[in-house]
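target protein:
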Amino acid sequence: MKRVFLFIGAIFATFSVFSQQHLVYQLYALDSDSGDTTFREVIRYKNQLKIYDVQDLSGKLIDGVSTDYTYVDYDSDSVYFQMNYQDGESFYSVNSLKNNDVTFEKIGTEKIKGYDCIKYKTSINSNAIEVWMTEEPGYDATPTTSRGYLKGVMVRQAINGNRILELKSVKKDKSIKRDLIPNDLGIRKSGKELGNINKEKLIKRFGIFNDDQIHFANIEKFKGEIPFDSVIHFASGTVILKRVKLPMLPEHYQLFAELHQKSNGDAYDRTGSVFVIPLDRKLSLRDALIDSIEVIPYQYDRNGKKYEGIRLENDYMPVVELMRFFTPFGVSHFNDRVKIDGLEWKEEAYYKMEVSELSDRLSGDVLIGAFIGNYDDGGHKVSLDIVAYPQDYSGDTDGNRRWSLPLFNTCNVMEMAGQNYGRLFHTDSLTVEFDIPENVENLRLRYITTGHGGWDGGDEFNPKENTIIVDGVMTFTFTPWRCDCGTYRELNPVSGNFWNGVSSSDYSRSGWCPGTATNPTYFDLSHLKPGHHTITVAIPQGADEGGSFSHWMVSGVLTGERR
């Protein structure tokens, strides 16, 4: 006890005698075993403060990390929040400390860490906030400025009783300069603008397509090496392809495919796919696009129908599907065609899907394509970005252990160049042989499936169980079905409206709705050992009816991590 009182007495001495103080606060969570804490320092010279967090940001950092300072001038009632970036740019905003909407209620006094404190409380967004302030030193100092002004020095703050910000030490520091606030803080912005700048600096956005047309047209066949950063049309204009150079990002980044789509003349719901063409093996879809569909491996079903490029082979790798999406009925182009009370048509369809587990396919020299199956000379317009959000400050790319192996894809992106629909499931299953390397673990199957056949008896409108067989053992069963399609009515201005009040776009379907993307299903394959394996997809596809037929678009990518 004697040692504790000596320590407290020393703090009191530094409080009141000197006009230059260095205060250290600790931010921590009660009942947490993690041991994670953050220290916040407050530098004081008379009526000015400089506030900043002390973080361990050693090593290589991601681009866009700012060094932030908060400055307080009590004389002018001004709070300056400043962000400084690695590229030399600085931005700041100015606010009042005392003119704040937050109201604190004084609820008593309490001795905290040896200080006589006044205790206050308030509530913000359902969060209970308690603050202990001491007026003994005769000046003001606080490590947080977002909740307005309270007289004195803050000793403790508690949010919901467990998130604690607490004074740990106070030292006199004669080296502190008289003018804490720099003359040049950078470019002044509003608080909202600062938030947007911070996001823009940290988030990486790679533009792939920008309002590019996907349509059915007489387009001269492209020959030769695909150049960087040019949009090339294939398969009579229904496939667009771009070769881009993407950086290797640390594994902690979350990656998303972000797509905007609108009709440019086509009124119907169409299958769309965003994909990467892997170049790991001798042949790929690139060869088929430039040369002919006949150059890539194929197989026949029991009815003698031919299916090109649908599975992994010794010298061929199928495309990696990032996103399967379905266009709505005529959004944008046909918005003036039909008026329905209570409905306001959307201007475009928007799809955003996380593709983090495929990040190894989104670095270096990458061929990214988009397909919409349609027969309209106006077709559709699409814009595509790959967007990356950091989850950590580390810029270490050596830790990126992502690994993937595309196994199969029956989504016939070269439909207009002769590639068959996935009709084989009526008489056959789809089996793929593959090898797992020694240094790969935490395996999962990323599986996308949608059923098609647009009449009453077709597989589009009838649930069908998908069965996944691994090494001859039935391992997973899954029935894709969407019964929420009516939610997206405002995307479908020219969807057919029936006598009973139901729209065509409202009907439940086998894993998809007009105007939506189909979520992948993930199957755990972590039990698989290194070596040779087989995987089989079996679906009870319905029989043809007259000139109509059912088919299934399934894609599967094995994902994991390198040891």
